[in-house]
Design goal:
The structure is a single chain. Strand 3 (99-106) and strand 4 form a beta hairpin. This protein has a four-stranded mixed sheet. It contains six helices and four strands; from the N terminus they run H-E-H-H-E-H-E-E-H-H. Helix 3 (52-62) packs across helix 6. The chain starts with a helix and ends with a helix. The chain is of the alpha+beta class.
């Protein structure tokens, strides 16, 4: 009798676990990135970041390969224009340059599911620099840093969207 009670209790526990809501993978219908480059105010910065919207859209979408669905949620990114000028400030180094923005996840019905602030800085960029690179010697205006910070921001966006609760 005692064994039957233990088995019944175990069965109830398994049933309760099986009925728990599972986190479904985030399905994405599209990615849009807005960066108001004229607001940056630096001709060098505008030239450097001229392809940022397209590059970030591609890099973020790549984070969701296999999870693109027309009925999924939309990712909208509004890049912080102040962060775009940071590599061009006098005395800037790769350690002080950053890319920041607001990421909004939008439900298929047009309502906001969640809003996150995402920042990529030198600590995030290191893993995306070419092998053997030293973040202290890589110029924040170099092509290598650009590619690395775009990848780091895309990964940070994906991590924020995949780990935080959404409505």
């Amino acid at each position: 009798m005692r064994t039957l009670g233990l088995l019944a209790g175990a069965a109830l526990m398994l049933a309760a676990c099986g009925g728990a809501e599972r986190n479904e993978p985030l399905l994405v219908s599209g990615v849009t990135v807005e960066a108001d480059l004229p607001a940056v105010g630096s001709p060098q910065a505008v030239a450097y970041w001229k392809n940022l919207s397209d590059d970030l859209e591609t890099a973020i979408a790549a984070q969701f390969v296999g999870r693109i669905d027309p009925m999924g949620k939309q990712i909208d990114v509004d890049v912080d224009e102040i962060s775009l000028g940071s590599p061009f400030i006098s005395g800037a180094t790769a350690e002080t340059a950053r890319l920041a923005g607001t990421v909004t996840l939008i439900n298929p019905d047009g309502t906001n599911a969640a809003v996150y602030n995402v920042t990529a800085s030198s600590a995030d960029v290191i893993q995306y620099l070419p092998a053997g690179s030293n973040v202290t010697t890589v110029k924040p205006t170099s092509a290598e840093y650009y590619q690395a910070i775009v990848q780091a921001f895309a990964r940070g966006t994906a991590q924020a969207l995949e780990t935080a609760p959404q409505s």
